[in-house]
Amino acid sequence: MIVFITACSNKQTTNNSTKDLADKAFEETIDLNGINTNKIIEEEQGEKIIMNSVALTQIAEVLDLKLAGIPTTKTGKIPERYKNIFQIGLPMNPNMEVIKTINPTIVYIPDNLEDWVEEGFAKHNINHQYTNLRSVESLYNVTKEISIRYSKEEKIKKLEEEKEKFFIDYNEKIKYKQKPKVLILMGLPGSYVAASENSYVGNLVKLAGGENIIQSDKEFESVNMEYILSKEPDYILRAAHAMPENILAMFEEEFKTNTMWGHFKAVKENKVYDLDYKIFGMTAQFNYTDGLNYLEKIFYN
After folding, report:
1. What is the DSSP secondary-structure string of 228-268?
2. Is 176-300 in CATH node 3.40.630.30?
3. pLDDT (tens digit, 9 = 90+) per residue, 72-112?
4. Segment 37-62, tens digit of pLDDT
5. CATH number for region 25-154
């Protein structure tokens, strides 16, 4: 453990480095003038609600909420019912002038975006609330909280019943299976980190019976090759934080040119998998069942 503990002692440096990379990746702004032509703003029970992530728009859809604003996305899928709603720009770089024009009652934001958006929302005195969407459990907690606020409790009750049934069946299928040891790599523009079970992808691996070789209180840690090689993961999963095509190409190049990867059993046995970014993202979504079924298939079949 000494090698990894040394890496963990530099958590702040790692987090700052990760943030710098993300800053560069999300400097992009989008011209919303043409995009928002003929777009509308809807109110839910007299409130103007903005959801600043694809996952949050999906929560709104399952609760049958009307929205005043939605994010602009290049990789995710906004529910069809919101295609005519005003867009506010990229989740990590929303257009504050457009948001002010909407004059929202509240803006819901995933808490892993706080470092990038808090200054803008605070400066413009826009009411906002951060939500934890790092696990399946927290997804339901957030959905329940919002359902109570807008008197949609019957919707969450049905969702929870469906979830309970799914996990009864799923856990029955995997309960006697040998738990695989898993390394999860999360790709960033120009680099990558290792994901712990406190990340969403890590949560899915845990629910699928996997043993994450990265034990940490943080979502992500820097990759220490000596440590992860000593833990000999049975599977290596590669995910993308943003720009998925570029990230997956980066991983391919990394695994070809860095000879250290050739020493891993998972590489030798072709147990390296690139995860679908539409399912294995940074925040929990209701398609988590697809993710768990996929993991069950590669871990145990």
Report:
1. HHHH--SEEEEEESS-HHHHHHHHHHHHHH-GGGGG-HHHH
2. no
3. 987 778 999 999 999 999 998 999 999 999 999 999 999 98
4. 999 999 999 999 999 999 999 999 99
5. 3.40.50.1980
